[in-house]
Write a structure and sequence with these properties.
The protein is an all-alpha fold. The protein is built from 13 helices and 2 strands. The radius of gyration is 25 Å and the shape is globular.
């Protein structure tokens, strides 16, 4: 490995010596790529730049993102690099991940919803991935003690197993964020496991009575009224506000062609 950021206080101890430099480069490339892509797309929308076309086909940036992830992941598995190439491949994987997650909403909805309300899910997925990576970097960095010498391995195994059970329950209850963060920080998943499940979750549909399901719907509606607007403001500040949707015009079923109307006047239906 190459100690690129040795001038940063604490970098040697917490990142380089701990063997976390590839993860650090991955997160750095991920963050810089996401910022650059969102800046470009926001400026492009303001200036009316057209989308990139290859052979007349609009190639979304998740396509090179997926290719970058595949190339980097395959190279890391196949060659197990130990030198500076590992940092390059880690950075390439971070770039590809950012390009892919920036269009997570397109993958989820199978349509181009980048500048719509549904497109906010891309911002949420990106923030969750970045936060999860930072948590892994922080929790695996040395803090001056060796847990393996202070705590028996059996105790550590039990704590991890119990924490995974709570995280699984949190996922089943629709508490995705608490479940993800609970995988890294013990105790957080417990909050998601004991709280009322979301009404659309597998847990609620499988185990809740109609009365408890109604209570879950009421709780979800109240939470949406309280926090949805603030959350959307944060997402729009980061990724740009969705384009206002035009009101749909009359359906083709509501407007009859002129020749059909004229024909109906000429040949009225007999009683």
């Amino acid at each position: 490995m190459t100690d690129f950021f040795q001038f940063v206080p604490g970098y040697d101890h917490y990142v380089y010596d701990a063997g976390r430099e590839p993860l650090f480069f991955l997160l750095l490339a991920f963050l810089l790529t996401f910022v650059a892509v969102r800046a470009y797309t926001r400026v492009g929308r303001l200036r009316g730049w057209g989308s990139g076309l290859v052979g007349g086909v609009h190639v979304h940036h998740l396509v090179p993102g997926i290719l970058a992830c595949l190339v980097a992941g395959t190279a890391i598995i196949a060659f197990d690099p130990r030198d500076g190439s590992m940092l390059f491949l880690s950075s390439l994987f971070g770039v590809g991940s950012a390009l892919t997650l920036d269009e997570f909403a397109l993958i989820l909805h199978l349509e181009d919803v980048y500048w719509t309300d549904e497109g906010r899910s891309s911002i949420e997925a990106t923030l969750m991935a970045l936060t999860f990576g930072v948590l892994i970097l922080v929790t695996t960095a040395p803090v001056g003690t060796d847990p393996s010498k202070d705590i028996p391995h059996a105790v550590i195994g039990i704590v991890v197993a119990v924490n995974l059970c709570f995280a699984l329950v949190a996922f089943l209850k629709g508490k995705t964020k608490l479940g993800v963060f609970g995988l890294v920080i013990p105790g957080i998943a417990i909050v998601g496991a004991v709280r009322l499940a979301r009404p659309t979750s597998l847990w609620a549909r499988r185990f809740y009575s109609p009365a408890k399901l109604d209570r879950s719907h009421s709780r979800a509606s109240l939470r949406h009224e309280r926090y949805a607007h603030q959350r959307h403001r944060v997402y729009d500040t980061i990724g740009g506000a969705p384009t206002p949707q035009a009101r749909p015009g009359p359906s083709h079923l509501d407007v009859l062609p002129t020749d059909v109307v004229n024909a109906a006047d000429r040949w009225p239906v007999s009683e």
